[in-house]
Fold each of these.
Amino acid sequence: MTERVRMLTIKLFSNYIPKPEMPLWAEKLGAAFLVSGLHFGQCFTTIKARMIGKRSGFMSSRALQIVTQLSNAPEQTMTSQELAERIGVSAHTIKNEMPQVAQILNENGARLVSRRHKGYYVEVLDPEAYDTFSAVTSIRQMPGSMLNADRESRVRYLSRRIISTETGIKKEQLADQLFLSASALREPLSMATRLCESFGLRIVSRPGTGMRVEGEEYKRRLALTEVSGVHFHKETLDCSDPDSASWLSCGYEERQDIRHTFLKILRESPVSLRDSATQRVAVYLIIARNRVQNGHEIRLPDPWLESISGTMFYPLAQSIYHTLEEQYGGYAMPQDEVAFLGILLFSMLDVNLKRDPFSLHPGFAGQAGCLRDRVLVYLKQETGLDFAPLPMARDLLQQILFNLIAQHFYGTDGTMQYDYVYELQFLDCPLCAELSRRVIEFIQTVYPFRANRFLLAMLSCYFFSLLHEIRYPIRPLRLCSTHFLGTEYARIQTEGLKERYPELIEEITPMNLYELRRIDPAECDGVLLGNGAEQEEGIKPGYRYDYPVELLLLIRNERDFDRVYNTLLVEAYQYRQQLPPPENYRVIRNFQYYTPEQFFQYLAGVHGRDEAERQALLNRWIIREKCWTYQCGEVVVVFQEEQGAEGEKIRLEFYPLEKRALWGERKIRALLYVGGGLHDWQKMKALNTLLYSFVRYPEELEAFAEDPPRMAAEWLRRSLQTM
């Protein structure tokens, strides 16, 4: 331990430890630092529980966490709730810790400031004293995974530590490093274990050494790539812990250069990957170099080598490694290493209809084609609708299944991924997610693959794109047009409108304003006024007010077309007829549930026709919830496919909650049950839009509860309007 470190340590802890024991404490802290390689914030937590002569006023690990959060957010305040969410405790617990936080800051050159309705922040009064405190506790150098201490960040950090260690790490060490108790560590550690196992890694624990993973080298690298958390190119690699530092070590500029070199070669090839996949490959290239240089090489099965060597991915991987070796060194890779990079590129292909799967791998493409046909037959049996003739339905599905078959063959299917919100957005489309769940369940009965959230999102996007192309029936509108300068100008002002929306307009009759009195409202769907008024909002003058009216004054700009379309022409689409009839909506208020299983049990009891069906429904919902949650945004949407005459009509039961309640670990506003069949394309499209609106417009759920048919029609109308 250096003299500077010793003096900083003594200076900090002289306030807390009796003077005679201070050198012993300094030696203990220094020894821990040298042995474990941990930063001082971690050593501080590890050793404090064993400190001799500990006083009650000594800093708690939770207080240190609060100080850390506040110190790393100097430009903004943090509320008790924000701190609670970061640290994983209640806001009440945070408030209870604040007196100790204030005392700690007061004794180390700073003070805690609280602003009403805004939160807390740290004001530094003595920079030298506060810098000393910061240096010893390392509160300004905490790893990002520990600062943003939500559940996901904790799982990433724990996974990376367990995957990276060669000798093992104890649970007590992990708890200290994350400032968690043994009980609080249990859940994130269990999730980290499941993450490792999804990559085929075995978690072993031995007395005296702790936990570590066992498994093939390529599995370890894939897992380490995923939990590094740097799938955006402007982020930096988190090398805060000593085990992963050696595998992730790379300068920021060099990492950017490696990534751009790889992307240049990729652009010049027929292969294309989605953006986050290219970020993963860039990180993998760093890990691969560091692992190989330390003697950890991949050994692949002969069938894998034979399969990948006959594709374009093997020479592409050779080209990438050859170029990187020339420019940076450390990339002279043996055959198995080159082959696995090719496999990685193959497994991460995006969906691209310009690329023929048979040109990539005829065997996989043939299997994907057969599986696609079976899935389309299943969908027809399940929904009564034939998806196959829809534009792109066959080709898109074959591409998705082609990637799935390749991933399964090379053992990369079913791994847990940290996907970005925009990559998973179609999971918030309840109907598309439900169709995807059913397809995955069917495929798993005929094909032994593992699924993950991204596959579910891909299939949901597939169904969303197909339904997006479905068109509602159109009844062209009959309009009247007026102009304050006469009927000829009334005719002129509508020419552009008719040219732009010919399929929505049957006829436009020019006339003077007073002539509207003789028009039968049953023969007129709307009036276009050209009366000189410049106000787009408010009352539009006319002699009749029992039909829609809109302003159109010789088209002052393109917005006039959009406004007329949104207010009048959108009614040409026969969307209202596709919605459930008013009697098929039911709102149940003052409903209380305690667990998802209890809600499923209630629904099964209400909608099951006999005990056997009730038990089957309950089992199906519980199993699906464990695999793929029914929660979409702040709403839970539960489906029941019904047979027979009643199954032809969609029925909705809406359960608005008085207060947000927990569903698993996220809060929800409402529960929704959807029963009935999906045997009409337009009705399926309308239902998809309706259910998606529950997620998109949570602030309007109460309005739906007040008048379901009106809000359902409003949501569909809104979906047809231009922005």
Amino acid sequence: MLMQTHEARLAALREELKKRGLDGFVIPISDEHMSEYVGDYAQRLAWLTGFGGSAGSAAVTLDTAAIFVDGRYTVQVRDQVDERLFAYQSVPATSPAKWLAENAGEGAKVGFDPWLHSRGWAKAAGKALADVGAELVPVSGNPIDAVWQDRPEPSAAVATIQEEALAGRGHADKRGEVAQWLKDKKLDAAVISALDSVAWLLNIRGKDVTHTPVALSYVIAHEDGTAELFIAEEKVTPELRQHLGNAVTIRDRMDFEPALKSLSGKRVAVDPDYGVAAISLALEEGGATPVSERDPTILAKAVKNGVEAQGHREAQALDGVAVCKYLHWLSVEAPKGGIDELTAAAKLLEFRRHYGDLRDTSFDTISAASGHAALPHYKVDEDSNIPIPPGSIYLCDSGGQYPCGTTDITRTVWIGTPDGQAQPTAEMKDRFTRVLKGHIAIAQAIFPEGTCGGQLDTLARHALWQAGTDFAHGTGHGVGSFLSVHEGPQRIGKVNGAQAGTLEPLKAGMILSNEPGYYKAGEFGIRIENLVLTEERHIDGADEGTWFGFENLTWVPIDRTLIEPALLSENERSWLNRYHADTRALLAPRLEGEVLDWLMEQTEPL
């Protein structure tokens, strides 16, 4: 009989811990690749606690338990997780390691799955426990898997090929670049464990993880340019074998750990963020030396070549048509009432599927009405779904995965009333316009070589700061090419220890989002998001050196109803009018009828 309640599941886990001589255990949202999104088979935290967010963890002892989330999930965790079973804990104010150090007690043995945590986390947590006389112990086989009776199997979908016509480079060329990097670093091999890195390096894709077109696999890349791909046999097709050729050995995924142990005497690069602790443990057990180095594909993947950049332009045009059709539909139907958040999200997906070669959404659509729009990471479901009220602000953040590129766009729009009388308040227009001013400032930024995203971030916030307000998320993240919608290493955000990537110098070819926002708790939220491509800029009379700016990639009208024109400078007004003229020029030939009429009206000069 299956365990239906979280109370029964927690009790079963505790019994399993007792059998193993453990006094506690840590449960993250993670997989063996430290992925942002994980397959159903790896949703251990959700199974144990009921929490459905994308970031969080839990810690369990034999008599108490806690769940740890950041500020994005303060409301959600209370809706989904029984406080009688799990105490709510906020990070970064605390952490599983700190909590366990306070609750496990001297002499306690706390288990962790080394395939789900980084080496750095294991060292830090181990020290925190050692300081109070407890011990962090790697487990062989996850104890949750031992009691999760109906745990899904990992996806068996076959791996597919990303043709060079879309990738812009062959995988032999990419492997050669990694081999040269290894030689320069005096290393023998590199473990490539991040799923999007494997996909980029070998020009393969898959359907194993929602929102990210990757195949569950690992690569060991060698300094002679050869590589070993570890992947389940059922995923391998004759076409894949032919694509990879003789220089890439295909081995079963189960052979990965033994292969690590066979690298005796080798110096092997392991990424500190994406290489789980088990990789370094296996290397050391086999007599190899793990060397902490950033995955050599990370930066190369982030710098898009000309083919990838053109693919993104094509994907944005496809997506722009779908989003325009959606916003036109919303402008007609939502003022009548009767449209809710789920219906709206489903309609947008329908338009994307109908118009372009959509393979998946790039993340869960944020379809947010009223106060829900003030939650930057809101996720609508059957329980949270509400109607979109006429006479209100509605925010939609969404994206698509197309073979030629990955999209991510946010539009905030005014939902009118049937009589056309309802208008946004002065406060709404003020805040929307200040967000727009920040968006334009990033879009127009010119900066010298070596500039990082943290140095640009203030531009997005300046107009909001002048009104005594701010937004609590980053301004921009990297985006992949038919890969992860959140791709490092670059990022635009406030510079602090929690914001990895804000100190990464921006390079030509990097794609970022530009998405400042404003959120009034319980009432409304505003965000305007386009994607931009970093490019070199020639500036007459500039000092020596290389200078950069951004090419805009996303083309969908920005709601003029919410703009307070008096707040815009002449330069900002000119930018907006040019943006709308360019949007019209690109999309008008692809639209017709009422949607074309809507586009023409929405792109009139301000």
